[in-house]
Specification:
With 372 residues, the chain is mainly beta. Helices cover 4% and strands 44% of the residues. The chain is built from 3 helices and 27 strands. It is globular and about 55 Å long.
């Protein structure tokens, strides 16, 4: 849903202060965490403009959940509208879009190691997703700015920006998720757009684009054969007159030639769409109201869902909001926002669809990061 308004908060926080105890801020001592072995972080987006984003930590071996670990470990709130997480070695990066900040935390302790804020960059406004190019270069997409921010993920220093050339439509010129292939990074332009941009990572510039017939590409994955899969939500015909038709599409695009090879219309989108891929990049999973599974060699989505969305006491289907595959064992993690206002639920399934566990987290869980 397009519920965002332009809202930029610049946070200037010194690293030394971040690392220090701050009982004066919250009056609660920082907790000491020591997450050992494999773990799963769940980012809970919260409600826009409410400052109630949180971070949860799940132990898949013990099936235990710790909620609110960022605030408990750092005696400060995560911020407003937690959007995405990206892991690089011993640092977990968290983009908190409406607070205009990218945090870097130690995944074993949940303690802050550093940050990058709007005030430290030239163009960043609302950071959305982070893509690690290498140990010294990473990209950050943005909800409003027609630029992609470049920073050094080792030192947390801003190093430049890539103009996207995206025209402003209804106040947005957004770029979203990113996937890498060879020396290219693909990024989808979600808000009121129908483009996929192609970035040359050696030159740090947009070199090409792919125009789709369906509006608002929402998720992307690259399969083992070098095919780019893109799911759109179709736009929202109720928000702006004549914009979109609310019919999602699933595309297969050759990452080398940029030719669209496959286009399938999906069911009307009641909640949201999402796309994930198995670790061997041979199997797609997607949310289109329910959850579907599809081999990347198939030309059509199965008619019947792989996993059906839960039905509430009111008879309404829950709002599935996020989808991730554990790269170590293929377990599927499904984020259920329920009704967008109460604590969400995470479902953990085996690759064959057998339910392993379910647990409550924060408001609007939207994704996971897996700690090996």
């Amino acid at each position: 849903m397009h519920i965002h308004q332009r809202f930029c908060v610049t946070l200037s926080v010194a690293w030394g202060l971040l690392a220090a105890c701050s009982d004066s801020e919250g009056g609660v001592p920082e907790e000491v965490f020591s997450h050992q072995g494999r773990g799963v972080y769940v980012l809970n987006e919260g409600n826009y403009n409410s400052g109630n984003s949180t971070l949860s930590y799940y132990d898949p071996e013990q099936k235990t959940i710790e909620n609110g670990v960022f605030q408990r470990a750092n005696d400060r709130k995560l911020g407003d509208t937690g959007q995405s997480m990206t892991l690089l070695d011993s640092t977990l990066f968290i983009a908190v879009e409406n607070s205009g900040i990218v945090w870097g935390i130690d995944p074993r302790t949940s303690r802050v190691k550093g940050s990058l804020t709007t005030g430290q960059t030239e163009h960043m406004i609302n950071p959305r997703y982070i893509h690690i190019v290498n140990a010294t270069k990473a990209y950050i997409t943005d909800l409003y700015a027609p630029y992609i921010t470049i920073f050094n993920p080792t030192t947390f220093t801003y190093t430049g920006s890539i103009p996207t050339g995206q025209a402003v439509t209804y106040g947005y010129s957004s770029t979203e998720q990113m996937v890498g292939w060879k020396n290219r990074v693909f990024t989808n332009c979600w808000s009121y757009s129908n483009k996929i941009l192609v970035i040359d990572t050696q030159r740090d510039e947009v070199t090409d684009s792919i125009l789709l017939d369906s509006w608002q590409p929402k998720g992307m994955q690259i399969d083992a054969r070098g095919k780019l899969w893109v799911i759109t939500d179709g736009g929202y015909n109720t928000e702006h007159e004549g914009f979109g038709d609310n019919i999602p599409h699933l595309y297969r695009i050759d990452a080398e030639t940029l030719v669209i090879e496959q286009d399938q219309a999906l069911d009307a989108d009641e909640a949201g769409v999402a796309l994930a891929i198995s670790n061997d990049r041979q199997t797609l999973y997607l949310i289109n109201n329910d959850i579907y599974r599809m081999d990347v060699t198939e030309s059509h989505l199965p008619v019947r869902p792989f996993i059906e969305a839960p039905i509430g006491n009111d008879g309404k289907r829950h709002k599935l909001y996020g989808l991730n595959v554990d790269p170590t064992n293929g377990d599927l993690y499904v984020a259920d926002a329920v009704d967008y206002n109460q604590a969400g639920t995470m479902y953990r399934y085996k690759a064959d669809g057998t339910l392993i566990d379910k647990f409550r987290v924060g408001i609007n869980p939207n994704g996971c990061a897996f700690i090996p």
